[in-house]
Automatic annotation (TrEMBL):
GO terms for biological process: response to oxidative stress. PANTHER family: OSMOTICALLY INDUCIBLE FAMILY PROTEIN (PTHR42830). GO terms for molecular function: peroxidase activity. InterPro entries: KH_dom-like_a/b, OsmC/Ohr_fam, OsmC/Ohrsf, OsmC_Ohr_Peroxiredoxin, Peroxiredoxin_OsmC. This is Osmotically inducible protein OsmC. It comes from Halomonas stenophila.
Length: 143
């Protein structure tokens, strides 16, 4: 099976004074503005790192659901936040780390089974496999 999805971006102007928009094939994002100030100076709005974080969090949550299902558990809820670290590195900037923070309610799962599934999902999630960055995980099983 091969699935292809796309996102697009348009940039106009110089790095610091320019502006761009980002869109997705589905239309969920349509001409959402982004800029240097939104990415590096804390101005409100979108930026590539938060989009990567959303993609990673959603992929990880689905992978965890799949692995828990294979182990005989049906999660009631999986909530994941992915914190993406963009840092100055040799030759410019790079995404150096992503921290996944997930909380899940999984009836019948014990801590050992949950942690095993959480770590398998971290390693096996297709988006995790994309990154050349340290990916850390804090997974908690909730009542």
């Amino acid at each position: 099976m091969s699935i292809k999805k796309n996102g697009s971006a348009v940039w106009q102007g110089g790095l610091k004074d320019g502006r761009g928009t980002v869109s997705t094939q589905s239309g969920v994002l349509s001409d959402v503005p982004y800029s240097f100030a939104k990415r590096f100076e804390g101005e409100a709005g979108s930026n590539p790192e938060e989009l990567i974080g959303a993609a990673h969090a959603s992929c990880y949550s689905m992978a965890l659901s799949m692995i828990l299902g294979e182990a005989g558990f049906t999660p009631e809820r999986i909530a994941t936040q992915a914190t993406v670290s963009l840092e100055e590195v040799e030759g410019g900037f790079g995404i150096t780390a992503i921290h996944l923070d997930t909380r899940a309610s999984v009836p019948g799962a014990d801590e050992a089974a949950f942690q095993d599934a959480a770590n398998k999902a971290k390693e096996g999630c297709p988006v995790s496999k994309l990154f050349n960055a340290e990916i850390s995980l804090d997974a908690k099983l909730e009542g």
